[in-house]
Write a structure and sequence with these properties.
This protein is α/β, with parallel strands linked by helices. The chain has three domains: about 190 residues, Rossmann fold; about 110 residues, AICAR transformylase, duplication domain (Cytidine Deaminase, domain 2), CATH 3.40.140.20; about 130 residues, Cytidine Deaminase, domain 2, CATH 3.40.140. The two termini are about 60 Å apart.
Length: about 500
């Protein structure tokens, strides 16, 4: 039996090769892998010696040879006589992982160096072995080494596991090629070339999708969830993940501030930044305790026992916190339905994905991701006679951030660091304004002195007049309507401060 081993990531490879050698396998190798195995005292033959063909063109050609690919690809029964006639011996195992293309792009901008780290022979060998997986074992992940050795010692690798390895191999090379294509599209075409590839690593299956008759799973980019998500209590569902995403994105937007976000159906129903997480939670809950029932809470800091006891007064489905104390976890021990997750960080972190995409029937829409910049409020233009107070500017920042992360059309009312009312996902902006005010009235919440934020411009003055009737004193919006003058006039008539950011944040 013969194995070809040539890896960039050499984790565990010496032990794997030694295990194969102890079972009587002949080992072929190249370059740095050959040198490592030789230094470990493992009997190994260089590929160039095996093929009687030297490496060429600065190492660009090492394994591209009929004796290598013929040895991998030929069917052991149908092609046996032809292989013998051509002097091609069997290669029964291929252990290959690829040049670190992505790591190279992160460490240098030198295109020549990056191009040299595009692996040619490696993907070709992996694909050849995966295609002929009935006869050849293909290994491209170090975590498979131990299982392969164990099976070989027990009589051979099963056909089922060979199929599993082949699927993993084709996925490995597909991701590698997609990474190269996306990088070159980014470099030459601003990220929007003729084709764009989206791929992720599966973290876990969900119990089902949005509904019980749908299947679902969580995939990650760049190891984000593997490194920043841990279940302390309960199993995460598809819908939980949607809400957790919205909650964490909002709460993490405030750096190290003690922010608490309460989310229901991916929209905020409560949010506050107060002096402590406990006070923030209490203020966030006041906005809409009815919707908070069965919702998701994101805590930008430590969930301690005191806060846990307060949260435990109502039913929430999910808590996601930067970190959780043992005492807090104990508070919920008797609650079977609650789910608790942590990032094991000091504060919540949200990934900075450069691109955003949305599925539509028949395809998807790709765009650069939307972020609220600090400068949007710093540079907002006051277009009214009245100027906002310092406390109103602070509330503008919160209201503007919440509005940007809420389904359009939306309006957000904030006072003293807490969201008091919100209207979201409406077909008209004035309906959003009416809905927010009506909900606040139902809750007995006084909106006088609030700051109002709208993620897009007001097309008419009607929303301003509604805001005036409930006592709003400051408004922030993008501006840009053909009726901006009417909106400004309405603000001045009602003694409001009105600021235009010049930036819209639709979320559809």
């Amino acid at each position: 039996m013969r194995a070809l081993i040539s890896v960039s990531d050499k984790t565990g490879v010496a032990e794997f090769a030694a295990g194969l050698a102890s079972l009587g396998w002949e080992i072929l190798s190249t370059g740095g892998t050959y040198s490592l195995l030789k230094s470990e005292g493992i009997e190994v033959k260089e590929v160039s010696e095996y093929t009687a063909s030297p490496e060429a063109f600065g190492g660009r050609i090492k394994t591209l040879h009929p004796k290598i690919h013929g040895g991998i690809l030929h069917k052991r029964d149908a092609h046996r006589d032809e292989a013998l006639a051509l002097g091609i011996g069997r290669i029964d195992l291929v252990c290959v992982n690829l040049y670190p293309f992505k790591q190279t792009t992160l460490s240098t901008d030198n295109l020549d160096e990056i191009i040299e780290n595009i692996d040619i022979g490696g993907p070709t060998m992996i694909r050849s072995a995966a295609k002929n997986h009935n006869d050849v074992i293909v290994v491209c992940e170090a975590f498979d080494y131990e299982r392969v050795l164990k099976m070989l010692k027990s009589g051979g690798v099963s056909a089922e596991f060979k199929k599993e390895l082949a699927v993993r191999a084709f996925s490995h090379t597909a991701q590698y090629d997609a990474t190269i294509a996306n990088y070159l599209n980014e470099r030459f075409y601003g990220g929007f070339g003729e084709r764009h590839f989206i791929f992720g690593e599966r973290v876990t299956r969900t119990r089902y999708g949005e509904n019980p008759h749908q299947q679902g799973a969580l995939y990650e980019f760049n190891g984000f969830f593997s490194n920043n998500f841990r279940a302390l209590k309960g199993e995460v569902s598809f819908n939980n993940l949607t809400d957790i995403n919205a909650a964490v994105k909002l709460a993490a937007s405030f750096d190290d501030a003690p922010a608490v976000a309460i989310i229901k159906h991916a929209n905020p129903c409560g949010f506050a930044v107060k002096d402590s997480l406990l006070k923030s939670y209490e203020a966030a809950l006041r906005a809409d305790p009815v919707s908070a029932y069965g919702g998701v809470i994101a805590i930008n800091g430590t969930l301690d026992e005191e806060l846990a006891k307060k949260i435990n007064e109502i039913y929430v489905e999910v808590i996601i916190a930067a970190n959780v104390t043992d005492g807090a976890l104990g508070v919920f021990e008797g609650k079977k339905r609650i789910k608790i997750f942590t990032q094991d960080n000091k504060f919540l972190v949200s990934p900075i994905d450069k691109y955003d995409f949305k599925h539509i029937e028949g395809g998807y829409i790709l765009q650069t991701s939307d972020f609220v910049e600090q400068s949007e409020i710093d540079d907002a233009k006051c277009v009214s006679s009245r100027i906002a107070s310092d406390s109103e500017v602070a509330d503008m920042r919160i209201a503007w951030q919440v509005a940007a992360l809420t389904k359009s059309n939306c309006v957000v009312y904030v006072k003293d660091g807490a969201m008091l009312a919100i209207g979201m996902g409406m077909t008209s902006r004035v309906d959003a304004a009416r809905a927010a005010c009506a909900k606040a009235a139902d809750m007995g919440i006084d909106l006088s002195g609030c700051v109002l934020a709208s993620e897009a411009f007001f097309p008419f003055r009607d929303s301003i007049d509604i805001a005036a009737r409930v006592g709003v004193k400051c408004i922030v919006e993008p501006g840009g309507s053909i009726r901006d003058s009417e909106v400004i006039e309405a603000a001045n008539e009602n003694g409001m401060a009105l600021y235009f950011t010049g930036v819209r944040h639709f979320l559809h």
